[in-house]
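Request: Not sure, any thoughts?
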Amino acid sequence: MLVQKYRSMLSGKSVIRELSEFATARGQEIGYENVFDYSLGNPSVPVPRGFTEEMIRLLEGEGSSELHGYSPSLGITAVREAIAASLEERFGLPYRKEHIFMASGAAGALAHAFRLVTEPGDAVLTFAPYFPEYMPYVNLTGAELKVVPPDTESFQIHFGKLEEMLTENVAAVLINTPNNPSGVVYSAETLRRLADLLGQKSREYGHRIYLISDEPYREIVFKGVDAPCVSAFYDDTIMCYSFSKSLSIPGERIGYVAVNPNCAEAETMVNMCGQISRGIGHNCPPSIIQLAVSKVLDETADLGVYETNMEILYRELAALGFTCVKPGGTFYIFPKALEEDAREFCRKALAYDLILVPGDTFGAPGYFRMAYCIDTEKVERSLEALRRFVKETYR
């Protein structure tokens, strides 16, 4: 008999993926250059030259076994050492290779983190608006994801609601900063207040409440915005990182778990990740990609285009009367729709070949997301369609 919980998921297909597929089909009709597809967060800028050169060097100069053989279960030792040294230099925490576990992107890192610190029946809290895949990521472990309602004034943490929901069965709190879909970066004040609250509740309940920090957008931060290191505020932090956005290599599926060196049993937790891999079929990310990223830890793709695109869209949205918190990073913007039903708003936008994602799927009804990781000239061309949509539908 087929497993019902997975069969039932077939009827809950990702709204984002459905819209992306619609955009592709529409592009076959009118040319994809004429479809203003803001649906999918797929990096658009080329990989840094240093990454390409390192891949070429490896392929031409290293042996087949080293490049294409299995890596150790925790990841290649030299790669883990390089990442630890980079994190220590950047953030001032005494990371060592024993605190690093190589994973298949941030999703793979999160899959290990949830299984490290939750048992079936435990609760994990996250904050709206949130990445919708968190729901299956957590719930399919046997734990339960619970969503703290948003503070729509700033999209920082709604601490009043958090305190109500931070009950004794909460094993972990999951945050994502810079945030998908809002583009907001959590401030030092927010992180300090969160750390104080988690410490207080951990002592009150007699067990640690872990902070799981999902950080694939860590390098995409705009001018003048402070993006503090989450792990510097709270010892029991598990950092989950991906190179997908910083290096524009989402298809390579490479990232890591970094357990705060000050966390009790940090080294044991990393070793446990190797055992978790045995149970979820994750064994050893590609060796060649591990080796390549370890040589470009101080490089990124040309991420400045995202800030350019954000400024263009933010100015136009404001001029058209949209309410919007200005993003501090990522390549997403999350305005309030011009009618209460954001799904209907986004459906109407399709007539103008504007592909927008309703905020319902992110736990924030009434808002919509635009993923502006597209060419700047296309962003600029989309403005006329946006103006016509607003004028003809809402004026």
